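Q: What structure does this chain adopt?
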Amino acid sequence: MTGPLMKGVVCKICGFAEHDILYRGPIRVGRFGQLSAESHTVWRCGGCWAGYLPAPEADYVSGEYRILVDGSDTAEDFYRLHDGEQAEKLRLLGTGGLRGSVVMDVGCGAGSFLDLVKGLCRLTIGIEPTASLRQAVVAKGHVAFPYCSDVAAEWEGRVDVAALFSVIEHVDDPRGLLKDIRRLLRPGGRLLLSTPNRRDWLLDVLPDDYASFFYRLVHTWYFDADALRRLVELAGFAQASVVYSHRFDLSNAVLWLREKRPTGLGKLDVPDSADSIFRATLEASGRADYLYCSCING
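A:
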């Protein structure tokens, strides 16, 4: 979408001060079906190509955010909703180099990913602002802090691997967050981060129905692969490599086209071969729904 330019607002990623319109219309407020009464404008920075939604930052401390998007801020419900996502994260991170390492998960929720890797690691650190979830992380033997800025100075430059899953789109200053993570990573330490793909194929196929679902009040930033690489490089990371991952099956795609709503996995009897081809095609073409970026603390 093109249209009027927003000038004078300096991008917090690259410092550029000219933006065009990426999307204008209603956006998702919480779960599916909860749309804003008013239109919102998502701007695209002309310098780094990141999409930006001016909106108040969500309350991540009290549990309000978790209740808004998950319906609950309890650890038990977090596990029920998110444990199944962790195997794919570990597959993309890989287990090589994890044994005896210090691993930090920023925005760890109740610690599902840390639980998965704890047996390999020397120490696991969780960063989680929501108090109820952070308490669950500590109770399982992980070290935990509300924010990266709260991590004790003794850990500066000692983290081997950092994970940042589905977080960068939420924060007001993503470049600043990545610099905080670099402070804690050792030289040559690895970061794996993920975020929704702004080139998700359904945005073209269902530009109205899917866009009002994709753009959401709690997501301040929207990235494609180029914008994500630009962000991590400006923050001082090197060897940035982006891969595409499509998390939803062909059944969900067919039902989106038919019913204009998400349905989850496996609701239609679709042959595994067709589903594999569908996902592989989207990932190969860069139109999958999620991005993973691996980079090194340069």
